[in-house]
Write a structure and sequence with these properties.
Helix content is about 10%, strand content about 40%. The chain is mainly beta and about 325 residues long. It has two domains: about 10-160, no CATH class; about 200-330, Rieske Iron-sulfur Protein (3-layer Sandwich).
Length: about 325
């Protein structure tokens, strides 16, 4: 049961940060007039329907209630944890619509649903207070990628429009300098995990009952990490690409932190191994070339796709707060 003392006011009241319930979308060509190539977007594809949710918009709204590929989804982002997570929002035949409660727990966004007023933890999708307590939303594979990477991977994709019905300074970062490994988490009162600096980003994966964190300092240096999580061979990609949304005052001027992807390494009955070459990934078995989004674009496997796994690029403190039994990958 959630300790109610862990819930703290985040500043704006309930719905003070307005979720988007009727999002509009534009073609990438139209978005290019205001979205820089290296700006970060949350890429989500469901049933062949690919959409990009720019962090320059999500940073002001935190939740987008949408329908992608015919599936009701909630695309969420908590700036204080750098947690971008997409969820299916239908449970037992009921579709829920989510809003921003105005509360935080361990510095992470607490959502509420408008049907039952239950409170939900954004980072792990768990209902923590109310009628649906103990229920967990199903996460969907989503990636933070650069706008340019989204356009290459999904040329027919759509981009969340700035026409939101709200007046916000989209493109401005209200958390200047927060994405800094030497910073301290804001409004965090939870346990301290000494294994990593609190504000180091990790590629966080939960699969097959196992939780694992891959420090960005390691994945950025290696570019490719092969591992096994929950009994499944996986590969972690880390390519140059997206800038941070929480660095400079204008997001487009922020430093580049890169783009990660996590996939099952098994394809067609064999486990592939990869190497990094000039922003692309090459499998050693066939020499095919792959994007960080998991599509083969050249070689014998052209047109094939790796199976994506839900993952996030979270600040370590946030992931450890909700997944304290996480194993940290050290390069073994």
């Amino acid at each position: 049961m959630t300790d109610l003392d862990e819930l703290v006011a985040g500043g704006p009241p309930k719905d003070g940060i307005p979720a988007l319930d009727d999002p509009l979308f534009v073609a990438p060509e139209a978005a290019a007039g205001w979205l820089a190539p290296r700006e970060p977007v949350v890429a989500l594809e469901v049933n062949g329907d690919a959409r990009a949710y720019p962090l320059q918009i999500l940073i002001w709204h935190e939740i987008v209630n949408d329908r992608v590929g015919g599936v009701p989804v909630a695309v969420t982002f908590c700036p204080l944890c750098y947690s971008a997570v997409a969820y299916a929002r239908t449970l037992d035949g009921t579709t829920y619509t989510f809003g921003v409660s105005g509360l935080l727990r361990h510095a992470d966004l607490v959502m509420f649903d408008r049907q039952t007023e239950t409170l939900w933890q954004q980072l792990n999708g768990e209902a923590i207070v109310g009628e649906l307590t103990g229920t967990v939303l199903d996460p969907l594979p989503a990636q933070i990628v650069s706008f340019a990477q989204f356009r290459e991977a999904y040329p027919e994709g759509r981009v969340l429009s700035r026409e939101t019905g709200h007046r916000r300074d989209y493109g401005r970062n209200p958390y200047v300098g927060y994405d800094d490994i030497d910073q301290r988490p804001f409004l965090y009162r939870g346990p301290q995990d000494e294994r990593l600096p609190p504000m180091e980003k990790v590629v966080a994966v939960s699969h097959g009952g196992e939780d694992k964190a891959y420090p960005h300092t390691l994945t950025r240096a290696r570019r490719v990490v092969h591992d096994t999580v929950g009994g499944t061979p996986i590969v972690v990609f880390h390519a140059p690409g997206a800038v941070s949304a929480l660095d400079e005052a204008r997001i487009r001027r922020s430093r580049e932190g890169g783009t990660t992807g996590v996939f099952e390494a098994r394809l067609g009955g064999r486990v592939l191994r990869f190497r990094y070459e000039d922003g692309r990934f090459v499998d050693e078995a066939t020499g095919s070339t792959w994007l960080v989004t998991g599509q083969a674009i050249a070689g014998p496997l052209e047109g094939q796709r790796l199976t994506p796994l839900p993952h996030g690029d979270f600040f370590a403190f946030a992931w450890f707060a909700f997944k304290p039994e996480t194993a940290v990958y050290r390069g073994e």
